[in-house]
Write a structure and sequence with these properties.
With 131 residues, the protein is mainly β. 11% of the residues lie in helices and 32% in strands. The strands form 2 sheets. Strands 1-2-8-4-5 form a 5-stranded antiparallel sheet, with no helix packed on it. A 3-stranded antiparallel sheet has the order 3-7-6, with no helix packed on it. It is globular.
Length: 131
């Protein structure tokens, strides 16, 4: 999720990790969801298997909360969506918010390609994705 350089649009996150361009830091955080159906939670969201996924079970916005133990710089956020499989469930709007706790989250501007590149990376303890 962090990178020293700007990530090119359409880049494969796994390839970038193998070459050392990015480093996956999601395992250093505590992940939570606003809701999920049984068997479609955080484990399926994070398991690197494109056949499994998170499925929310509640009203919008659907939230993914990522809380780091200390302030962490996040420059790149990878989000995979498959419109052919998801169709009407593919989000039409994604909001990324950062801050040090739930009370000071601020929405940040991101450029979405296949990767979500956070332009103005700052040190934060919490990242929230709203779908």
């Amino acid at each position: 999720m962090t990178t020293p350089n700007k990530t090119p649009p359409g880049a494969d996150p796994k390839q970038l990790e193998r070459t050392g361009t990015v480093r996956e830091i999601g395992s250093q955080a505590v992940w939570s969801l606003s809701s999920c159906k049984p068997g479609f939670g955080v484990d399926q969201l994070r398991d690197d298997n494109l056949e499994t996924y998170w499925q929310s079970d509640g009203s919008q916005p659907h939230l993914v909360n990522i809380q780091f133990r200390r302030k962490t710089t996040v420059k790149t956020l990878c989000i995979y969506a498959d419109y052919k499989s998801d169709e009407s469930y593919t989000p039409s709007k994604i909001s990324v918010r950062v801050g040090n706790n739930f009370h000071n989250l601020q929405e940040i501007r991101v450029d979405f390609h296949i990767l979500a590149v956070v332009n103005n990376a700052t040190m934060n303890m919490r990242v929230q994705i709203a779908l």
